[in-house]
Amino acid sequence: METKVETMPPAIGMTASEPSAPMLVVRGLSKSFGARVAVEGIGFSIAAGEIYGLLGPNGAGKTTSISMIAGILVRDGGEITIDGVDIDVGPAARALIGIVPQAITLYLDLTARENLDFWGRLYDLSGTALRAAIDTALEAVGLTKRADDIVGTYSGGMQRRLNLAAGILHQPKLLILDEPTVGVDPQSRSAIFDLVERLRDAGTAILYTTHYMEEAERLCARIGIIDSGHLIAEGTRAELIGNLAQDTRIEIGVGRGDSLVRAQRIVSALEGVQLATVENDHLHVVADHGANRLPAMLTALLNAGTVADSVRVVEPNLEDVFLRMTGRALRD
Is the distance from CB of 13 to CB of 171 less than 8 angstroms? Predict the structure, then answer.
């Protein structure tokens, strides 16, 4: 059983601030790999004290984009500034960034403290400043009591939290979190959420990618949706949902296999239907004034010999926005 998460301190050694001038500004970001265009003309900004969610299906260009922003991948075009410093300045700009990749970047045969000592020296920390930074980071992620244990003995959730500690060790102004809760237990996930929110409240600008829509709903003040290398929508949750206008989602249960595929084909052809997809053995339909379209859908299915065994009308949410914009669920 995993060690209980320790109570976290009220601050991370930074002065709290309200969302203000952009900390990160990205303009016209582009990258190709041979003939394949991975990212084309992406632009957005993140203020100090703001969490910005970058959402997209697999292969949409998220990882390529954050790799360029972090200075890991050379871009083909565009501009990136962090706190007014051009990323091309080099180490001076990259020192402002903390990145927590999806992969665990820890030495499993070292202790947590030894791992953070290694990463701290890469950030040019040493001596008393390094020791203090390590203690602060360990306390922030609730691992002080396990600091001198070998990381290979940690649970997956504890390793995720230590991975996060390595990214905040030098108190970056921009923190990039790439799927920070993949595979973690509920306790560690809650601890990560709490820390991310405290970092935000302390003034850190946070770029957050996730495959869990509920995380974006909870954490992100604004969301950008990326698909096929383009930023196709951006706004607050309310703004994005508002853009659906009168569109309504309807879930119809019509059996499985061929019955479900046939129902999808029939409903897709009806007037007012914007999108019809199959998910979890149900037909998910987005239609303008959807509740009013429901009788026509059920009649068309009945005429084709298909009887619906369940029907649910759902108010639009962020998942609907994503599905409408990309034609896919977030995890696809």
Answer: yes
Q: Is a pLDDT exceeding 80 seen at residue 7? A: no
pLDDT tens, residue by residue, 116-146? 999 999 999 999 999 999 999 999 999 999 9
Q: What is the edge-to-edge ordering of all strands in the sheet holding 36-47? A: 36-47, 22-33, 77-82, 85-86
Compute the distance between CA of residue 48 and CA of residue 248 in angstroms, rounded to an integer: 35
Question: Homologous superfamily of 22-240 in CATH?
Answer: P-loop containing nucleotide triphosphate hydrolases (3.40.50.300)
Between CA 221 and CA 239 the distance in angstroms is 11
| Fold classification of 245-315 (topology level) | Alpha-Beta Plaits (3.30.70)
The 3-state secondary structure of 278-324, one letter per residue: EECCEEEEEEECHHHHHHHHHHHHHHCCCCCCEEEEECCCHHHHHHH
In the three-class reduction of DSSP (H, G, I as helix; E, B as strand; rest coil), residue 47 is classed as: strand
**CA separation for the pair 132, 130 (Å, rounded):** 5
Domain boundaries, the chain: 22-240, 245-315
Residue 317, classified by CB atoms within 10 Å of its CB into exposed (0-12), middle (13-18) or buried (19+), is middle
Q: Which class for 160: exposed (0-12), middle (13-18), buried (19 or more C-beta within 10 A)?
A: buried
Tokens (6 digits) for 105: 């970047």
N- to C-terminal Cα distance for the chain?
32
Q: What is the pLDDT of residues 235-284, one digit of tens each?
A: 998 888 877 655 677 889 887 777 788 889 999 999 888 888 888 888 88
